[in-house]
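Researcher: Re-running this chain for the archive, since the previous output was lost when a drive failed. Same request as before.
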Amino acid sequence: MRQIALPLSSASDSPPRIVVGNANTAVLDALMEPGRWPFHTAVLTGPPRSGKSLLARWFVQTGLGDAVDDARGVDEDALFHRWNRAQETGRPLLIVTGDKRGTGEGQWHIRLPDLASRLGAALELEIGEPDDEMLAALMEVHAEMRGLVLDQSATQYLVGRCERSHLGVERLVAAIDRLSLERKQAPTMAIWRDALIETKGGDF
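Model: Regenerated structure tokens:
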């Protein structure tokens, strides 16, 4: 399991990090070779809190190309201008959105026909859901950034019971941290269980 540290300001002493695992390895490989992108453009989608924005910042900071984050909230004429500039300069453009293009409920519906047709030809990149190994690594990173100690027995217990998503792991670690602070004690199995009930429901 790899990690990429970003030289970004953070509320803690630890800089933001991207955990590289099953869910995003193919995406990272594609980002490292933007010269292969059709029309110098790629569209990145993925679940909430899966590191899309961090990957976009990493892409820009490493000099691989430009990026537009949260493209769904960007003016479509301005986005079309960015696409045109990528064609003129040959500099790769990564467009990040939480939703795939389409017409279904919750999907990113592009109203400008010229933009829709151009982005329809772009490379599609999608972050998936993490497997057990990546879930454990995500827990460790979130815990470390909070100054929270979760040993291997904790992650083994939690991985098989938590919500299997990037957002679910983040919420779980936040709940463990809060409960630990409220009870003024290091995380115990009782705290792990209460955090699981709080974030996922059920009986643990």
